[in-house]
Specification:
The protein contains one helix and twelve strands, in the order βββαβββββββββ. The protein is mainly beta and 202 residues long. The chain has one domain.
């Protein structure tokens, strides 16, 4: 007897929005937000396939755990042009210059405002994982200024980042995005909304 098999293709597409707010009460209200980034990201296919398999098997480290920030996504050449690094999505990858991270899994003591949720529309073949991370006023503590930009307005109370990645608790880099440097002053609030769309194609 011939054994029938069905092959299903899985695609994952990531998109990142970064918003700035003046008040914590305004977070989540896009009408009160300043949009800083609206961009698609890159996926580490090998690491993502491992995490999906672990999740289906109910094994440890089968989920997104933390959001990481770095300062190695972009540099400025002598002419003032921004040179972007290539996303790290193969092999033993990491952010180029990781400087800070926050836990986003609310089941594992994520800070208030950080959370993950799943959205699905009945009858469709895709579902969205939405990861939210809020960097509050006066956060992060003790982080260095961005050394690659010759800007005298940047001081020790300013946090600047130009790359973000999602990791599982085992430290595997699942996604990576680079962009123009974002400067976060101590009196501002930043929210990152990271959406992964998982789609099945028969």
């Amino acid at each position: 007897m011939t054994q029938l098999s069905e092959e299903i293709k899985i695609t994952i597409e990531g998109h990142v929005d970064i918003f700035e707010y003046e008040s914590l009460d305004d977070v989540g209200d896009v009408n009160k937000a300043k949009s800083l980034i609206d961009k698609y990201n890159s996926i580490h296919a090998e690491n993502m396939s491992l995490v999906i398999a672990k999740g289906l098997a109910n094994k440890d480290d089968g989920s997104i755990y933390s959001m990481h920030f770095g300062t190695g996504g972009a540099t400025i050449d002598p002419l003032g042009d921004i040179i972007y690094a290539s996303p790290n999505v193969t092999g033993a990858a990491d952010l180029n210059m990781p400087v800070y991270f926050e836990v986003v899994d609310s089941n594992k003591n994520a800070p208030e405002g950080n959370q993950m949720s799943v959205r699905h529309i009945n009858g469709t073949l895709f579902s969205d994982v939405e990861v939210r991370c809020v960097i509050d006023k006066n956060e992060p503590w003790g982080q260095p200024s961005y050394d690659n930009i010759a800007d005298t307005n940047i001081n020790d109370s300013t946090f600047v980042f130009d790359e973000i990645g999602l990791k599982n608790q085992d430290g595997l880099l699942l996604t990576h995005i680079v962009f123009s440097p974002i400067e976060k002053s101590a009196n501002r609030i930043i929210e990152i909304v990271y959406v992964l769309r998982c789609r099945l194609v028969a």
